[in-house]
Specification:
Shape: globular
CATH architecture: Roll
Number of strands: 8
CATH class: Alpha Beta
Strand content: 25-35%
Strand order of the largest sheet: 1-4-3-2
Number of helices: 2
Helix content: 10-25%
Largest sheet: 4 strands, mixed
Order of helices and strands: EHEEEEHEEE
Distance between the termini: 40 Å
Oligomer: single chain
C-alpha cells in the first residue's frame, strides 16, 4: 500500500507568465519561491507553511477551457482564512467570481478563473468570517 505524507504540488499550464504571475502573486497573494533552471518558463509558489506548492508551467498550446466558469470541471482548491475578506478582495481587484456561501459541500466556496481559464476554488470553514 502507498502511504502518503501530504500533497506536494499541483501544476497548472499557463500561456503568459507575466499575466499569470500578476494573478497568482498579486490577486491570490501567493509567495513565489525559487525554481530550478528548467529549459522552459514557469514559476513556483508556496501555499501556506506546510511545504505544498503550486507550479506554473508555460505552454504555448491551447488550454482545455473555452467556455464560462464550470465548477464541476477539474480545479485547484485553496483554503482561505476569511470568506468575506476574500470576496471583498476579489471585488476590489475586479476579478469575476461565483460565490457559494452555503453550498451542499458543507463549507463556503468561491470559484474564479485564472487568466488561462484554470478553475480555482477558494474555500473557508465559515461563510460569516
Amino acid at each position: 500500500m502507498i502511504q502518503y505524507e501530504q500533497l506536494h504540488h499541483v501544476a497548472l499550464v499557463v500561456t503568459d507568465l507575466g499575466r499569470a504571475k500578476d494573478f497568482y502573486g498579486k490577486v491570490l497573494g501567493l509567495q513565489e519561491m525559487p525554481r530550478p533552471n528548467f529549459p522552459f518558463d514557469g514559476a513556483w509558489y508556496r501555499i501556506g507553511d506546510t511545504g505544498q506548492q503550486l507550479h506554473l508551467i508555460v505552454h504555448n498550446g491551447e488550454t482545455l477551457r473555452s467556455g464560462s466558469l464550470d465548477t464541476r470541471d477539474g480545479h485547484l482548491a485553496l483554503r482561505v482564512h476569511s470568506y468575506r475578506q476574500t470576496v471583498a478582495w476579489l471585488e476590489q481587484c475586479g476579478v469575476p467570481y461565483e460565490a457559494r456561501p452555503r453550498p451542499t459541500a458543507g463549507f463556503p466556496q468561491i470559484y474564479v478563473l485564472d487568466p488561462d481559464r484554470n478553475v480555482i476554488e477558494l474555500n473557508a470553514s465559515d461563510p460569516d468570517t
